[in-house]
Structures are given as C-alpha cells and as structure tokens.
Amino acid sequence: MADIAELVLQHIDKSDGIDTLQLSEALKEDHQKVVGAVKSLQALRDVINAEQRVAKRLELTDEGKDVLLNGSYEAQIFKAVPKDGIAQDQLMESVPNSNIGFSKAMQAGWITIDKAAEGGQRVLRKVESIKDEVQIILEKIDRQDLSDVTEAQLNEFKRRKLVAEVKVTSYLLSKGPNFTLKVERQENELTPEMITSGTWKNKEFKQYNFDAMGVMPASGHLHPLLKVRSEFRQIFLEMGFSEMATNKFVENSFWNFDTLFQPQQHPARDAHDTFFLSDPAMANKFPMEYLKKVKNVHEKGGYGSQGYRYEWKIEEAKKNILRTHTTANTARTLYALAQKTPFKPGKFFSIDRVFRNESLDATHLAEFHQIEGVVIDFGLTLGDLMGFMNEFFKKLGIQKLRFKPAYNPYTEPSMEVFSYHEGLQKWVEIGNSGVFRPELLLPMGFPEGVTAIAWGLSVERPTMIKYKIDNIRDLIGPKVDLKMLHCQHYARLRFHEPMMSCALST
Ligand code: PHE
C-alpha cells in the first residue's frame, strides 16, 4: 500500500489546487494524518506548495450526535405515543428530555391532550406520521452539505447546542517547482558506508532543525553543605594537605576518646552526650602493644606527665559509639603515620559527619559535619598554629581572628578561634584548635620533639552564615525547600557577593 505522502502527491498531480480537508475525505484518512504527510513533503523543498488556510466549520456536538442517531426529542415523544394514546405521566417517564420534546411536539401539532380522559390526562397522536426535520438537517450538517440549510435553522441549532462552530486549519496544496510523484526518503545520518561507497553523493539529507527544543539535561544539584565542603576541600588541597579516610561512622571509644587522652570518667563519654551502639556493643580488635601504652599513660603518665591516676578499663574502650568528632580519624591517621620509619612530616584534613546526643534546636542537630586539619612535624609551636589559622581563614575571606584559651583533653594549649562577623557586627566562634599533647603523640611511637597542631570547625555554621539560613531545619531534613537547593548559588566563600545559579522566583 502506497503511503499517505505518495497518495497526496497523486491527488495534487490530478488537480490544480486541492485542500487537505477534501483530501482527507477522498483518502478516508484522518485530517491530522494528511497534514502530517504534507509536512513531511514540505521538508523536501519545493516538491509541493502548501498554503495554510483557517476555515470555520460547523460540527455536531455530542448532543447533536445523539439526536442524529436517535431522532429529535420531539420525534422521540411522537414515537412513544401509541395509536390509542398514552397517559401523560407515563409518556413523560418513558423518553429522555421529555419536557423539551413534549412542548416541541405540541408546537408542531403532532400530538394533542385529552384533558377529560378517565384516569388522568391522555396524550394522543394528532397526525399519522411525521418527518423529523431536525434529524435530517443534522445529517446534512454532519456531511458538511449546507446547500439547503437556512440561516434561521443554523442559529436555532447553535442555540440548542446541537451544533458548534470550530476552527480548522487546512492547507491548499499545489505542485511545486520540483514536483515529483515519488518520495525519495531523506537520510537522517551520514554513515561510514555511504562515504566509502560514494552513495552519499546521490542522497538527500534531512535538514537540521535548529528550532527543536533540546532535551533538558538531567542534572543533580549539590546541597549547600556539599558546596561548602568542596570549597574547603579545595583550600586544603591548595595548601598541600591530603585527605584522611573517614569511612567509619561507627567508631569505638578507644579511638574516639582513649587514644586522645580523654579520661574514661569524662562527661563526654556519658550517654547524655554520645550515642552508644547496642549491637554490636563492643569492638574487639585493637593494636594491643599500643593499647597497653595508652592504658599506661592514662594510669601512670610518662613522657613527663603524671597521668590521670585511675584504673583504665579495656571494657570502657571497647564500647562502640557513633563518632563524636572527626578527631577519631586523626588519631587513626597519626597512629598509622607513627608506624612508618623514618618519621615523615604530614598535613592531613577530613570533612565528614559526626554525631552527638544533643537537645535539638534551631541551630543544633544530633548529627553535623566537621572540618578538621592537622599538621605534624618537628618543633611546631603555638605561633605556628596561630600563623596557620590566619593563613587558612584568610583563604575563606576571613581576615580578623581572635584566639581565646580553651580546654580539650587532647590539646595543650587549646584555643577557640573567633572571627568578626561584619553582618552580625560581633565576634563569633568559628573553630577550636590546639597543640596535641605528648601523652597522645608519644605512645603512638612518634620520636621526641615531634609536635602536631590541629583544628576543627563545623560545616553547618559557615554554611548557615553564607546562605543566610537561620534555622538548621531549612538546611537539612524533610522541611528543606528543594527549589532552594536547586537554585542556591555556589558558596564562593572567598568572595562576598554570592553567585546565583538560577533566578529564585518567589
Ligand atoms: N575535636 C574538636 C571538636 O570536636 C575540634 C579539635 C580538633 C580541637 C583538633 C583541637 C584539635 O570540637
């Protein structure tokens, strides 16, 4: 069977000027399909001329189609009246739209009422037979044959909502300068075979459609915390740091606390501050040599320290927890470094999630992210730490720093770091830092004279400041506005003005 496009060409060949509506009737094909074939012929450049026309056309409404099928309501009433009449009540129940049909049939003089009949009013036929003009005219309109349909009839039918006017776009078709009866398929692609065989020379190629809407590239969006994380990462990498492994949300108390010279009675090791695991509740693999040294330094000290002077218990160290700080990873990394000889200085960082059993409020969740850095070498001092902090925060666009003495079990001295926040017009705490204690480094096996400076900060605080978010639930969790995530600018911590990645409409 020839395809529609070829049939269209044959019809154009036989006529001078044919409309697609006529064609659709002649071919008994849906008009849309004929138009589709015309479009594909138009793409062949000058094979056909197609002139667009908009015409008004009358079409039957659904109700009109129903009347065409079953007769007008008045005709239905007439047909429902038998020769010897029918009780009016019964008649009215037997056909749809009986009210309209009844009054129309009365007007037309087709039926009459016998008011004096026994047992209530009866309806009787007044004529032998009727001609259902409404149905006849609708049938003509349906064929688009309006030759003897009067204006008044059309208006009445429109008013009765049996017909409606619709706009139809059609094309008047005629031969183009390159008219042909055969449709040469256009090639979509130039293939290697066409090139090697040389057949490309005789092929017609489909035109590019530069107006086609492209497919929206599917893309994910980084969460603001991830954007800030990647900025921090970049800064560490620029400063020559390597990334520590952080793939342990579940840590044991030994690495999270004991190796960091945090005594076993320390309040942070309480269930109020730390999440303990019930299954598996205990870890059982430790480097035993090192564990003994840790036990010893807690109980008796050494390396110039007197220790905490209590009985250190392995049961306490075995307890599994969700790590409370990334300093647990730092302890593991430093221990691994200490096992390598000769000693090599190092700079390490990590950015990952930690967990604390906190009461939740607008700025605190039970899980958050920490950024941590550590530098280890011979003879690093507090001066190095302060210098380093200045350099590190300058890279974030933070110029003014203040240090306040603080306490950490694992650092001495320890300092909280504050920066002046221009927006809030006050000093805000941005991090915690210190010089690792010899009680921590020497049991690991580092040589005398090696010191380490370290610091930690949260990812959430600078993110909330940078993105002007004052409730942490707008940043993480089920209440987060996904559009905000999609459109939020890249953090660009080193610049004051944020860059929007798309317009945030209200
Ligand atoms: N671990 C500390 C905290 O959780 C941060 C810190 C890291 C402090 C390293 C000093 C040295 O707040």
Automatic annotation (TrEMBL):
The keyword Cytoplasm applies. It comes from the Eukaryota. Its cofactor is Mg(2+). One of its GO terms (molecular function) is metal ion binding. It is found in: Cytoplasm. Its EC number is 6.1.1.20. GO terms for biological process: phenylalanyl-tRNA aminoacylation. Keywords: Aminoacyl-tRNA synthetase, ATP-binding, Cytoplasm, Ligase, Magnesium, Metal-binding, Nucleotide-binding, Protein biosynthesis. One of its GO terms (cellular component) is cytosol. Belongs to the class-II aminoacyl-tRNA synthetase family. Phe-tRNA synthetase alpha subunit type 2 subfamily. This is phenylalanine--tRNA ligase. It comes from Potamilus streckersoni.
